[in-house]
Amino acid sequence: MTPTRVDACHIEGMKSQTDSPIIHVCARGLAPVILIIGLYVFFHGHYSPGGGFQGGVLLAASFLLLRMTLGTQISQLVMPSRLTITLSAIGALIFAGTGLVAIFAGGNFLDYGFLPVPWFDPAYLRNYAILFIELGVTLTVMATLVSIYDDLLEA
Amino acid sequence: MATLELPPRGDVTAPVHQTVNKAGDPVAGAYFIQNAYRDAATPNMVTVILADYRSWDTLGEVVVVFAGGMACYFILRRRES
Question: What residues in chain A have per-residue pLDDT under 70?
């Protein structure tokens, strides 16, 4: 039997959840599609149902599919375990920091019209600020779900 | 008695569809519907309410998710030593 790439990972001592090549191929083909759908739901939240929470959950589903099929070791290449809790904190800080910047620019907390970006109309400033804080929401939700999965595996 | 059934679908006299409440004050929903696009230039009114008018609430949700992740981290993760 010629060693495939998955088998090579086995030989190097990386533990995988399952040995079925069908599941490996399907999961590796499906994960990028879920990733793209998650990014679409996140970016299209201005025009359709969607937004940070839903997009973050879809991105986390993509990473967790790889975690569950290929094993935790190999899927570290896509989303390292030590980064997850840091990314979660960064996402919450993006949200709160946007509000704090608005305070220091003279407005109320989370009043995006006062953000110090001078070449934008306030309405469009709010438009892009909404996208920015949704980025923070997406990061937090995605990283927290992956982090909880990793914690449950280590327990 | 008002909680025994839902109002009929499309009833324009239902309390949630009024622009002023029983006390005569203008309600927030009418303001959101009329001014959401003017304020934030975003077609999805739900996104504007969620992330702009009521962004304190969304910030609280994000902090709750983050706190849950931190709690799982500190309780479950094994110390590397």
Answer: 1-17
Task: Write down the pLDDT at residue A72.
Answer: 80
Of the candidates A92, A99, A123, the beta carbon closest to that of B41 is on: A123
Break chain B into its structural domains and give their ranges. 16-76
Q: Amino acid identity, residue A57?
A: V
- Helix, strand, or coil here: B10? coil
Q: Using a CB-CB distance cutoff of 8 angstroms, which residues of chain B are in contact with residue A121?
A: 41
Going by C-alpha positions, the residue among A142, A113, A39 that lies closest to residue B48 is A113
State the DSSP code for B25: P
User: How many CA atoms does the CB half-sphere of A92 hold within 13 Å?
Assistant: 20
- Please classify residue A28 by burial: count the beta carbons closer than 10 Å to its beta carbon, then call 0-12 exposed, 13-18 middle and 19+ buried: middle
ipTM over 0.95: no
Amino acid at A56: G
Instruction: Note the pTM of the prediction, 2 decimals.
Output: 0.83
**Nearest residue in A to B58, CA atom:** A137
